Amino acid sequence: MKTIDIGILGLGTVGSGVVKILQDNAQKITDITGCKLNVKTVVVRDVTAKRNVDLTGIELTDDFTKLVTDDDIKIVVEVMGTVETARSYIKQLLNAKKHVVTANKDLIAQHGPELSELAKQNHCDLFYEASVAGGIPILRTIVNSFAADQVESVLGIVNGTTNFILTQMTQNGLSYAQALKLAQEKGFAEADPTNDVKGKDAAYKMIILTQFAFGKDITVDDVKLEGIDGVQLADINEAAQLGYTIKLLGIAKLIDDKLDVSVGPVLVPSSRPLAAIQNENNAVLVTGKAVGETMFYGPGAGELPTANSVLSDIIAVTKDIVLETTGSRFNGYVKNVALAPASDVIYPYYLSLVLPDKPGQMLKLTEIMAKQKASFNVIKQTGESQGTARISLVTHTMTEAQLNAIKAELKEMPEMQLLAAYKVLEG
Ligand SMILES: NC(=O)C1=CN([C@@H]2O[C@H](COP(=O)(O)OP(=O)(O)OC[C@H]3O[C@@H](n4cnc5c(N)ncnc54)[C@H](OP(=O)(O)O)[C@@H]3O)[C@@H](O)[C@H]2O)C=CC1
Ligand SMILES: N[C@@H](CC=O)C(=O)O
């Protein structure tokens, strides 16, 4: 029987899960692939650190070059994180004809096209199923099951850490800081959680999803981005009273054949399945012209769920090696789609403001909105303190251009403070 040696770069949360699943399910993997998969070498930073996996028969080293120079190693799994170091290592590995599997969305979102091209030139596979939505097999599903359909939108909860934080704040009244600490302890958050809470991790995943669903390479500058660090308990409670749940959503959708991609807090009607997605779980809704709306749900982070997606890539590479079909791009769909202008992007919005608690202020606000031909259907005072009133309102649908004009006008009025302007998902 053919043995395929594997190298692993990183033995933290995900790397440990990969070793465990390979050990626990060795026989099933062999039955399916016809090959024995053997972890030969694992590269880490600190070889003296305690590990929670059985490393019998595995070489543990801090010398990355061993993966490049060992002719027996055919597949390398990169689960160490970082961008520039990982990029340099993966380029060396591909040039040494190693197939690469990675979970690194920061890297793929920023350098995916370059690395995919290099993989193709070297007739190598480069797969990254785990980079989006952890344990949900969404990328290969889009490649295979939506190949003949036209995707109209991809939206969902694609960051486990922020969904965990919002869930804990909503259901258990935990403070933002307490919930974040818990997410870090559970291994969902990145080593530096800034990218999680500021929405950048979700933006990276939306960049990859956009490439798969619409064939378009975009950069993080093309994603309208807002994190959850400004979401207050008052907004969560107010949204709940209005029948909504606040979620950090990534949304990529076609508007008249132009693309709009955003990440930010969104009020989701509490009756929709998306509102019920809790803790580190993710959910991605893909709407195709032919199939309509589909929803994929599962754990978006964590040791074994993420490792399971890595394993699906390893098995795909193994099958390609056996069939001698390596070197095809993970996603071959390419299309030049323009980005939608702000005047075409339409949503209702939830606005939360602090105004002086004196007569005429609501009128002023209404006038600012009326000037932009915008109106609202719900308005409520939700708090008061030291001569100010906090109010929340839900607007009728308006364009992003109208919202931007309202924001600009409010900025000129120091006595009025706009605390939040979040999209509202309809129906
Ligand atoms: N955690 C999760 O739920 C998910 C993570 N991912 C992605 O998977 C990747 C790994 O994440 P995770 O397992 O959480 O990360 P961890 O921080 O838990 O582990 C990182 C591992 O990489 C090693 N490492 C870091 N830098 C180097 C280096 N320069 N040279 C050699 N080894 C290095 C570390 O070594 P040492 O142990 O010696 O410090 C450690 O073993 C990241 O790209 C992340 O974004 C994707 C989906 C979900
Ligand atoms: N930090 C990420 C991990 C998976 O990609 C998240 O919380 O979703």
TrEMBL record:
Residues 350-427 form the ACT domain. Its cofactor is a metal cation. It is an enzyme of class 1 (oxidoreductase). Keywords: Amino-acid biosynthesis, Methionine biosynthesis, NADP, Oxidoreductase, Threonine biosynthesis. Pathway: Amino-acid biosynthesis; L-methionine biosynthesis via de novo pathway; L-homoserine from L-aspartate: step 3/3; Amino-acid biosynthesis; L-threonine biosynthesis; L-threonine from L-aspartate: step 3/5. It comes from the Bacteria. InterPro entries: ACT-like_dom_sf, ACT_dom, Asp/hSer_DH_NAD-bd, HDH, HDH_cat, HDH_CS, NAD(P)-bd_dom_sf. Its EC number is 1.1.1.3. SUPFAM superfamilies: ACT-like, Glyceraldehyde-3-phosphate dehydrogenase-like, C-terminal domain, NAD(P)-binding Rossmann-fold domains. It catalyses: L-homoserine + NADP(+) = L-aspartate 4-semialdehyde + NADPH + H(+). Belongs to the homoserine dehydrogenase family. This is Homoserine dehydrogenase.
